[in-house]
Amino acid sequence: MGLSAGDLDREIVLQTAPPVQSDSGEVTFDWVNAALDTIWAEWLPAGTTEAWKAQQRLASYGEGVFRIYDRDPRPTPDDTRILFEGRVFDTKPAIEIGRGEGWEIPVVARGE
User: What is the pLDDT of residues 32-67, one digit of tens each?
Assistant: First the structure.
């Protein structure tokens, strides 16, 4: 199943942070100075009943998939998160759609 431009109806922000190494050697990510890139995506809530529940309990938890066109650099769970409707979504490993057509990015957001 390919991507359709008409389905990309959600504006999201990909936030990519540079890694920072502390004096102790621990690597963290500098989200304050992260690069922001606004793109269009399709939102697919997890499961059919989850679609309704996600709307009802969006303030506490959200899980699903964002579908986007292929891009460079490609999002990775290590240094990318997604901002959508005032929420921060942590990314999981992306799944390629077709041959470089796009990406399905599983995400999860917890209550703030």
Answer: 888 999 999 999 988 655 545 555 555 556 789 999
d(CA 44, CA 17): 25
- From the list 35, 30, 1, the residue with the least C-alpha distance to 15 is 35
Please write the tens of the pLDDT for every residue from 72-102.
Answer: 777 888 889 999 988 899 999 998 888 878 9
SS3 annotation, 46-62: CCHHHHHHHHHCCCCEE
**104-107 own/partner pairs: CB under 8 Å, 24+ apart:** 104/44, 104/65, 104/66, 104/67, 105/65, 105/66, 105/67, 105/68, 105/75, 106/63, 106/64, 106/65, 107/62, 107/63, 107/64, 107/65, 107/66, 107/82
